[in-house]
Amino acid sequence: MQDDRHAPSHGRFITLEGGEGVGKSTNLGLVCEVLEKRGLEVVRTREPGGTARSEAIRRLLLDPVEQEPLGVDAELLLIFAARAQHLEQLIRPALARGAWVVCDRFTDATFAYQGGGRGIDSARIATLETLVQRGLQPDLTLLLDMPVSAAQQRVNTRGNERDRFEQERADFFTAVREAYLKRAEADPERFVIIDAAQPLQDVQQYIKNALQSWWASC
Ligand code: Z5A
């Protein structure tokens, strides 16, 4: 199978990560805006999802069907199936033509949720990562981090119906948070950790500064 690490690509791949309610969707717009102001073509997307078929898989993953639980392995494989389709149909073509892809969650979420939260061995996740991504990794990952209880309050305030993940208990989300922080610690060149508990204005200023310094180092 082809290794894409050195494929000619002028685009860049930025991901936003973090637990539920930390502000990923809110701040994704800001990141896109900053890049568009620099005259770049920006592709805004999300995982699981991003293409019609991957969004169909997302619905399967989030739907809390009560009659039939979703097995841990099935969940992991569905996530990577959605990712394979997303990469092939949207992310790789965009990067190849020089666009900047900004994605709400990617494989760090799998290591955090399926690894930290569900307890799947990270070596198994890494095997699928290699198979599906063939070396492709985000260039920059903004990890929005805050205490689980405060993030859950934000989600509660929003008041939407809870999806299958949002129905998990607080200890699940604590394990997810710890797994994210561990990954960020292991790869400080790629990750920027943002204190997402700050007022939105401060979070956004921090993100703008982080993008500015990252840009300068590119
Ligand atoms: N999942 C997985 O298990 N494995 C994987 O590999 C992948 C995903 C890729 C769907 O993701 C689920 O898929 C996810 C993990 C799983 N489930 N969970 N949990 P998702 O990204 O769609 O789901 P989410 O994390 O639940 O998204 P979210 O709840 O929409 O969170 P968010 O995007 O981080 O937050 P937000 O909507 O931008 O903000 C939440 C609220 O807080 C909102 O009212 C904002 O106005 C407010 N907010 C935002 N920032 C602030 C600040 N700074 N102060 C005050 N209020 C704020």
Q: Can you characterise this structure?
A:
With 218 residues, the protein is an alpha/beta fold. The chain contains eight helices and five strands; from the N terminus they run βαβααβααβααβα. The protein has a five-stranded parallel β-sheet, sandwiched between helices. The protein is globular. Bound molecules: ligand Z5A. Residues 18, 20-26, 47-48, 79, 104-105, 109-110, 113-114, 154-155, 158, 165-166, 199-200, 203 line the site of ligand Z5A. Ligand Z5A is lined by residues 18, 20-26, 47-48, 79, 104-105, 109-110, 113-114, 154-155, 158, 165-166, 199-200, 203.
Lay out the secondary structure.
Blueprint: E1 12-17, H1 24-37, E2 42-46, H2 52-62, H3 72-96, E3 100-104, H4 107-117, H5 122-133, E4 140-145, H6 148-158, H7 170-186, E5 191-195, H8 200-217
Parallel strand pairs: 1-3, 1-4, 2-3, 4-5
Helix pairs in contact: 1-8, 2-3, 3-5, 4-5, 4-7
Low-confidence sequence ranges: 1-9
User: First CA to last CA: what distance?
Assistant: 29 Å
Number of helices: 8
Spatial strand sequence of the major β-sheet: 2-3-1-4-5
Bound molecule kinds, no repeats: ligand Z5A
Multimeric organization: single chain
Estimated radius of gyration: 17 Å
Order of helices and strands: EHEHHEHHEHHEH
Q: Tell me the number of strands.
A: 5
Largest sheet: 5 strands, parallel
Sum up the overall morphology in one term.
globular
